[in-house]
Design a protein that fits this description.
12 helices, alpha+beta, 5-stranded antiparallel β-sheet, 328 residues
Length: 328
């Protein structure tokens, strides 16, 4: 890739600010997307912004357009002092290239990040999360860009998204990092005298840590107990459907087999941050094995992390099947 990028720059020669030189280079050969990307990343790093503008425009004119080019073109134009009207036209021209799927948006964001175009890269991550907030990758990618941007609004948005929507197997580690990062951000903003933004961080963090309903099932023994929760609106959260349209999530699933060296009960756990009002029906099914004492402990927590938090513990016999209803 580096040699191909060098070949393209060699064809342009010393006339990197010349539209004709770039046109000739793109018309004479078909250059790979990777080589073209590398060329403009190199020009940006060398602060040859006018050369990047002329080169990107020539690439677009000569059928070498890539989705990221319009955003980068706008950024390079801004660095050269071009009129805002030209910059706006470049951004409007990108519309056809953002109709792709979320993966394409993230690829484009990654390329924009090479040019340190953090606002545009994070904007594309936002679009990807809007399409599917329960997918973890866009949040983790956005977190990296947010940290590199050092912008409080980006750091806040990415960490709040992780706290609300990221429930992968390592969610406890990810949530702890997000919480500590936001608390440190709040402290630094307060120390800098930016009390308004510091308060915003605190308010959004406190709100993100509130969980309307958590149902935790614990048991001892080698039994495999399945938990499912029927929610209002005919939604059911279970191992077959771990995330519902209501935002219900099956966080933990236990089959009675603990990792080597680990002690403690097996656990299945359900959580809904913003639980809609109505009846919730808890179903427990013993799939295989045995539960010591024949009972599991069901712990229902309402309005977690608020002054109205309420926790109910109930030992429940479990055999071939069991159903318990709860109104929320």
């Amino acid at each position: 890739m580096l040699s191909r990028a060098a070949d393209l720059l060699k064809q342009v020669g010393k006339n990197t600010d010349s539209p004709d030189a770039w046109n000739q280079a793109f018309q004479s050969h078909r250059h790979s997307d990777a080589a073209v990307t590398e060329v403009f990343a190199r020009l940006h790093a060398e602060r040859k912004f006018e050369a990047a503008v002329q080169g990107i425009q020539a690439a677009i004119r000569n059928d070498h357009a890539q989705p990221w080019m319009y955003d980068v073109l706008a950024g390079e134009m801004k660095l050269t002092g071009r009129p805002q009207s030209e910059i706006d036209r470049a951004l409007l021209s990108r519309v056809d290239f953002t109709a792709g799927d979320a993966d394409q948006l993230l690829v484009t964001a990654a390329l924009l990040a090479r040019f340190e175009a953090w606002d545009r890269a994070i904007a594309l991550c936002r679009e990807a999360t809007d399409r599917n907030p329960w997918r973890s990758e866009p949040w983790l990618i956005a977190r990296r860009y947010a940290d590199r941007s050092s912008q409080p609004e980006h750091i806040l948005w990415s960490r709040i998204g992780i706290l609300k929507y990221l429930w992968t197997d390592d969610f406890d580690t990810q949530h702890a990092e997000a919480t500590e990062t936001l608390r440190e951000l709040q402290r630094s903003l307060t120390a800098a005298g930016n009390s308004e933004t510091a308060q915003k961080v605190k308010t959004e963090l406190d709100e993100a840590l509130i969980h309307d309903l958590r149902i935790r099932v614990e048991w001892a023994g080698d039994g495999d107990v399945d938990l499912s929760v029927a929610e209002p609106g005919k939604q059911t959260c279970s191992f077959r459907n771990k995330v519902t349209k209501n935002g219900g999530v099956l966080l933990l699933t236990g089959d009675g087999t603990l990792p080597k060296g680990k002690r403690g009960p097996s656990v299945e756990e359900y959580l809904c941050r913003e639980a809609p009002s109505g009846q919730y029906t808890i179903t427990l099914r013993l799939v295989t094995g045995k539960v010591i004492t024949g009972k599991v402990m069901v712990v229902v927590t309402q309005y977690e992390n608020t002054t109205a938090e309420k926790k109910t513990r109930l030992p429940v016999a479990v055999g071939a099947g069991m159903v318990k209803s709860k109104s929320n």
